[in-house]
Amino acid sequence: MPVVPIEVLPLFPVLDQRLTEILRSLSPADWQRPTLARQWTVKDVAAHLLDGNLRTLSMLRDEYFGEAPEDASTYGGIVSFLNRLNADWVRAARRLSPTVLIELLAQSGAEYTAFLASLDPFAPAAFAVGWAGETESVNWFHIARDYTEKWHHQQQIHEAVGGPGLLTKELFGPFIETLMRGLPHAYREVVAPVGTVVQVRIDTSIGGVWQLVKATEMWQLQPPVAGAAPAAEVALSPEVAWQLFTKGLSPSEAKPHARLWGDQALGEAALHLLAVMA
Question: Considering only CA atoms, which of 63, 58, 160, 151 is closest in space to residue 112?
């Protein structure tokens, strides 16, 4: 399947504006509400989004790497390092007021987007998209991955406070399209005859259909073929899909809300797609 870049750069200012709007509307109690990010409150998630801006500007724009992982050779080593960085930052940022957080998010968000726009989309990215199984990525995919990070953390805030959310065709479409690029990696250990097709459907007009086919050596995404007879199909609502694929729901928690046809084990493998570093 030809790799078609996912265009998300124009959406970063939209996300930033939506984030500023929801944060400015919060009461003091809202800032302390729990979120799907487990131990993090709304304020903690907002601080994490700020960290993403500042860390990218420092490392990639300014070429300043304050810390390096002790074990950068393994996926687990990198995840452990990132988890520690995230926890350290969120703990320290609890000293910041909501007003300061909003101001810093607005300033750094504009600089962050300007930096991303300066990158050659087809040049090698500084960091690979590990959850898609890549050891080398190009910038457009790295940027799309960053979009999914900003999208799902902001959506966690909306969920926590009853905000309008980001489940629109404009904003959710590129998010779920990027996540689906991780399907082949999620199926990497699934054994099936060559030519086997698995179909994943995200419901409603903001969703879509993706087909995965078993090639000789690996699974590959292919353009949906009308009239194809998938060996398995799994359908999810957008509300379940975004939480499942970003660790807000476990596969066992999501399964009762999924609709599966055909080979159950083959279809259930899609529920293990995880598009975050975890």
Answer: 58
Spatial neighbors of 100 by CB under 8 A, at least 6 apart, are none
Residue 157 and residue 163 in contact, taking contact as beta carbons nearer than 8 Å: yes
Fold of 9-173: Four Helix Bundle (Hemerythrin (Met), subunit A) (1.20.120)
Give the tens place of pLDDT for each residue, 83-135.
Answer: 888 899 999 999 999 999 999 999 999 999 999 999 999 999 999 999 999 99
pLDDT in tens, 37-63: 988 999 999 999 999 999 999 999 999
Instruction: Tell me if residue 113 falls in helix, strand or coil.
Output: helix
Other CB atoms within a 10 A radius of the CB of residue 48 amount to 19
* Residue 107, SS3 per DSSP: helix
Helix (H) or strand (E) holding 232: strand 232-236
CATH architecture of 183-272: 2-Layer Sandwich (3.30)
Residue 191: predicted pLDDT: 96
Distance (Å, whole) CA 137 – CA 121: 10
Going by C-alpha positions, the residue among 207, 157, 155 that lies closest to residue 44 is 157
Could you give the 3-state DSSP secondary structure of residue 276?
A: coil
Looking at the predicted structure, is the pLDDT value of residue 181 above 60?
A: yes
3-state secondary structure 136-189: CCEHHHHHHHHHHHHHHHHHHHHHHHCCCCCCCHHHHHHHHHHHHCCHHHHCCC
**Residue ranges of the domains in the chain?**
9-173, 183-272
Q: Distance between CA atoms of 181 and 265, rounded to whole angstroms?
A: 21
